[in-house]
Amino acid sequence: MPNGLAAHADDHVHAHAHHPAQQHHFETLQQQAEASTLGMWLFLVTEVMFFGGLFTAYLIYRLWYPEAWAEGSRELDIRLGGFNTVVLIGSSLTMAMAVRAAQTGRRIATVVQLIATMALGLTFLVVKFFEYKSKYDLGHIPGPNFHFEGVHADQVQIFISLYFAMTGLHALHMIIGFVLMSVITWMAWKGRFSKEWYTPVEMSGLYWHFVDIVWIFLFPLLYLVDRANQLQ
Amino acid sequence: MSGHISPTSSYYRIFGALMVLTAVTVAVAFVNLGRWNFPVAIGIAITKATLVILFFMHVKYSSQLTKLIVGMAFFFLMIMFGLTLTDYLSRGWYTTPRGSTTAGVQKTLEGPVRAAPAPRPAAEGH
Amino acid sequence: MTTTAVAESPVNYLNVRHGVMSWLLTKDHKRIGLMYMVVVTLAFIVGAIFAGLIRIELATPEGDLVSSDTYNRLFTMHGIAMVFFVLIPAVPAILGNFVLPLMLGAKDVAFPKINLLSWYVFVVGTALTFGAMLTGGVDTGWTFYPPYSSSASDSNVFLTGIGVFVTGFSSILTGLNFMVTIHRMRAPGLTWFRLPLFVWAVYATSLVQILGTPVIAITVLMLALERVAGLGIFNPALGGDPVLFQHLFWFYSHPAVYIMILPPMGAISEVIACFSRKQIFGYSFVAFSSLAIAVFGFLVWAHHLFVAGISPYSALVFSILTYAVAVPSAVKTFNWTATMYRGAIWWKAPMIWVFGFLGLFLVGGLTGLFTAALGLDIHIHDTYFVVAHFHYIMVGGAIMGYFAGLHYWWPKMTGKMYSDAAAKVAAVLVFVGFNLTFFPQFILGYLGMPRRYHMYPPEFQVLNVMSTLGASVLGLGYLLVMIYLTYSIFWGEKAGANPWMATGLEWTTQSPPLPENFPETPIVTEGAYEYAKRETKVA
């Protein structure tokens, strides 16, 4: 019946009160939160498959060219890689703490933990920049100017192509995550979150943990190939 | 909204475990385990990822649907790896001149066959 | 309580707000569905023009209309336009967007803003890709195989690749939105097994969109980086494997064909039940077969690589799996037939499109079994046999299914009825024209005529001329559809809420629907196809 329209006319007069963050097409805040969670997880599934294509290429070529993989891996600085691993896992810890602070309604703690997460993320990116720069200085950028000694040079170029593709895509996701965190931190500072509604913090957390998980695989796959020098 | 709130101590413990596992994976990389270095490294990485998923991402306390979705992602990733490998692992079975049964490793002495090397500016020949 | 001046028409989603901005900034899934229809139809026209040029060239054995290089661009751009900009989005983004929330008793999809974003992403991708076409296009085939596409081709591979990359995100966002909507926004009482089969089909499609599309995205990205930045992942000169590209490309592109066919099959289920006035035979089998197709569809991709140089042992595995994936489709076909048996067939236009679908999809599906056979595929791969096979599925199946759904839901979308007689004529024209176009191609392929060639031995001319003639009839049929549907928008007879006396929540609300779909959230108490409780067709 047309009377039903009156409750949802353009001027947003509501017969029922609901949380300001609840959008109109949802019946309850709980439904909205569940939808958001499901949506973010499905998005992470797409990310798994997205990176998965690169991992497939890595897997095939590692089986084909174990010597080149070993040589290429040894060119990477294991200390920087290891340091970055610790930093990124640390940022996952601070992110989990940030979500917990939001869950328990503690505004300042949420902001502090989010800033810590961003700081650690930025540290990671800075280290990555220096790693890339050293590759550039050594002439290891794939393409016409690639320069590498040894009989496996061509396949090492494939390894380094994958290195740049995988860590580059990962770094891009971190940059996006950093921007996302900035927005969430600002919202937290403004007091937008509460025990009743902290969904954006939780969703950002899921994204950030995913980025951490990708690195958890990238580190051994790229930095730790044949460090026991079996293939020499 | 309701969501499971973990105690901070559990987060610290998981972080600790992740640090230990990181140290282990680096240490083990320097030990010669032959063909097993790769699977061990992957196994440790999977363990670390599982800890992050279950505890940092709260999947342990999430709905069945969430768990199904996480499982689905890894299932299809395994399909992509596994079925692609049915090709790459069986290339050369009984069909190359010396009938190799190893993974499609190109066993040449000077690298893969290719056309005349591209001219390089610096006179460093192959 | 009408608020607008038009006394006859109550407020609906079309007249509630006016002006271009009210469309460009809409969050209404119904408007977004129509906006997709505009872009998809334009892409279809472009793709059809390319097809027309191809068929004109192939009317004579010599390559006399265009150069071979231009011909390469024509079939490439025909494929890209039709695959990525018509077949993938058509039913999900047009009909799915419009109908899904209505079928669920929901006010909108789960993420309306993301829905609008998906349309903008689609438009940007379309602009990039068709822009690339305007500046010379691509000549690699829609499959972009390296090393030709990465190093030797001098065409717009990079720009087209980026266009396809961007468009993929539209597909992902749509699939994500639909999955969450189906899980979380069903009306009270609407349990999974009371859902219309179109919803099951869209759900299965969304699974494929989410799992598959990212893989082609990364693959095209790798190709683009190889072409532009020298990243050597598929480069054989470095020891790279071009077949790896094919593996990754088809990992998506095979499941993609299920994105193209599952939603039309869902529409077919709806139309068959309504126009047989009967419960769908074996509802749960049809529902589960959609999921089975989605899952199994991911296990068969290397049947596109049978002659590419993969291991014969791997080819064997994929051949067996390909036979398995045919089974759920066959289940559907049997169940549709069984639905019609002892039903009271109502011979209206949507049902004519369905009959066309059934015949053509059957041929397409069966000829897929031919190509799945390893020994036979060695001979018919890259011939017109394969071209005919996939056109029977994609045009005979997907497009006919889309038209069946479009003709079924048109009164709901527009509030107008089209000329049933004209629609039946169009359906017959399309059916006849389609068969005349593509059946000769089975024979041509069997006789050995390769695909993607603009010249051929003179003994193939008769069949090619038949095919070109058929394409003209087909084109006429599509033109007729556009004419009477457009006519109906302005001068069509007004449609009521339920002109087909169909079951389903979408038919319980007015045509066109309210902006928020239902005045009150409906409560569902019965299954999807309770036609037994309704009167049969109008006298």
Number of helices of chain C: 16
Structural classification of chain C: mainly alpha
What is the number of helices of chain B? 3
CATH superfamily of chain C: Cytochrome c oxidase-like, subunit I domain
Q: Major beta sheet of chain B, specifics?
A: none
What is the count of β-strands of chain B?
Answer: 0
Helix/strand-derived class of chain B? mainly alpha
Helix content range of chain B: 40-55%
Poorly predicted ranges of chain C (pLDDT <50, ≥5 residues)?
A: 1-7
Rg of chain B to the nearest angstrom?
A: 23 Å
Largest interface: A-B, 64 and 60 residues
- What is the distance, rounded to the nearest whole angstrom, between the alpha carbons of the first and last residues of chain B? 66 Å
What is the mean pLDDT of chain C? 94
Oligomer: heterotrimer
Structural domain tally of chain C: 1
**How would you sum up the global shape of chain C?**
globular
Please state roughly what percent of the residues of chain C sit in beta strands, choosing from under 5%, 5-15%, 15-25%, 25-35%, 35-45% or over 45%. Answer: under 5%
Count of DSSP E strands of chain C?
A: 2
**Broad CATH class of chain C:** Mainly Alpha
Element pattern of chain C in H and E: HHHHHHHHHHHHHHEHHE
